[in-house]
Amino acid sequence: MSNVCLAEISPVPLDVSAIMATVAGPEVGGITMFVGAVRDHDSGRPVEALSYTAHPKAEQILREVAQEVADDFPDARLAVVHRIGDLVIGDLAVVVVAAGAHRDEAFAAARRLIDDVKATLPIWKHQRFVDGTFEWVGLP
Q1: Which of 24, 56, 78, 102 holds its CA 20 to 30 A away from the CA of 129?
Q2: Where along the chain do its domains lie?
Q3: What is the enclosing helix (H) or strand (E) of 73?
């Protein structure tokens, strides 16, 4: 059985508690989480809002990335959800949770998972700035 408890792309707001609950269990002594939120600036420019667009295979790729991390951290339980669609300042864009018997493995697994997701997941950000300009981030 895989220790990837959840790996999804979501068009609806992210529920941190529900995502965290997927990795909980009596054997878990440490849970660490990374939550990425939409901020009001990027590279010194004020951001108004943004939209995430995913490749049709993004969820499959997310599961594969999570499984690769799980394979390297067999004692950690993992969950990752990335948001798509229109988001405003303060909305949650991504939640990564790792749990283990001890904190060291949970911290290391969570760090690796968010880094690998950011590096490989085919999700693109269309960022709108307050001055009316925009940019795409993450295009191949």
Answers
A1: 56
A2: 4-131
A3: none
Residues 6+ apart with CB under 8 A from 51: 85, 86, 87, 125, 126, 128
Length of the chain: 140
User: In this structure, are strands 85-88 and 123-129 parallel, antiparallel, or unpaired?
Assistant: unpaired
Name the fold adopted by 4-131: Aldehyde Oxidoreductase; domain 3 (3.90.1170)
pTM above 0.85, yes or no: yes
Per-residue pLDDT tens digits for 93-110: 999 999 999 999 999 999
Q: What are the DSSP calls for 99-137, one per residue?
A: EESSHHHHHHHHHHHHHHHHHH--EEEEEEETTS-EEEE
